[in-house]
Amino acid sequence: MGKRCIVIISVFAILLAAAIARFFWQTAGSLEPVYEGKPLSYWLEGYNRSPGQSQAKTEPNRNQASEAVRNIGTNAIPFLLQMLQQRDSPLKDKFMQFARKKHFLKTPYVSTMDRNSRAQAAFMELSFRAKDATPQLIKIFDDNPCPCSRQEITTVFGYIQPTASDAVSFLLWAAANTNEVVRNNAIFALGKTHADPSRVVPVLIHSLQDTNVLVRAQATRALAAFDQDAQPAVPALLALLQKEQGTHTNASLFVGGPRGLLNTMVTTTGGLASLSALGRVDIVEMITKTLWHLDPDAAAKAGLQGKPARNQPFF
After folding, report:
1. Cα-based distances in Å from 238 to 41, 165, 191, 233, 299
2. Against a cut of 0.90, is the pTM above it?
3. Are residues 184 and 315 in the same domain?
4. Do residues 157 and 125 make contact, with C-beta atoms less than 8 angstroms apart?
5. What is the pLDDT of residues 97-124, one digit of tens each?
6. Element (DSSP H or E) covering residue 83
7. How far is residue 82 CA from its own chain's centroid?
8. What is the CB neighbour count within 10 angstroms for residue 281?
9. Domain limit, last residue, from 93, 115, 133
10. CB count in 10 Å sphere of residue 301
11. Structural domains in the chain (count)
């Protein structure tokens, strides 16, 4: 059998598997929530576009996607959880992209990363209303080893902000994950929930020694959220400040995000890419502000410059 024939058979097998999967997806989607006569999955496509980037009048943008999610409300949660559970192999993703390029597919193929990203954006919009989905999100994280799913789930926790003991335990465990993006996003979520300081603050202090500068910055900001409960972190922050001033790793950091957060998202290469809505800020400045916030006396004794004004927003 020639190589060309093998390729054609392989593509056909992938397309057949995709058609079968699509059939079951559509069958399961019969209970998919609807807004203004369109299914939720239609509106979620808008999360791949900025407000002014719709490719046609019939296609939604981000603002319309968020409006649909807000109106559907918690009825969207089962469908969003299903999106986070789905996982395609890298080989299938490549074949499906090839098939789409060759016009074998009449409908767009949504990759695993895009599905996870859309689900995360919807959970962000639901915010606290999705808090009851915490146990299911933890289970999906445990059952689905796909990195992009785990990265999105830990970010979601920062927006739904569950404070239950099992949720905090999960985030503490995720903060030690081997994947730097998962660690970063778990620390982000711990800072947003600012619950159980007796357990969380020691983990954040340990994260100040992380090998990734963005994770160290994330831990610095998370500690600031714990206010006086994070005072035990002052010696470690002073030591980190001295280290960062000597290594000059602070020049490439950005802060920002949809709500002014030092949140990070996943790049196509699996690394950390910061959102930059608020512009540059270096980790030395971030540590300095955190020290002034937690212990002004220690900051003054260390001779730190840049004491924030009384009414100046913190970060």
Report:
1. 48, 30, 20, 9, 9
2. no
3. yes
4. no
5. 555 555 555 556 567 888 899 999 999 9
6. helix 77-85
7. 17
8. 17
9. 133
10. 10
11. 2
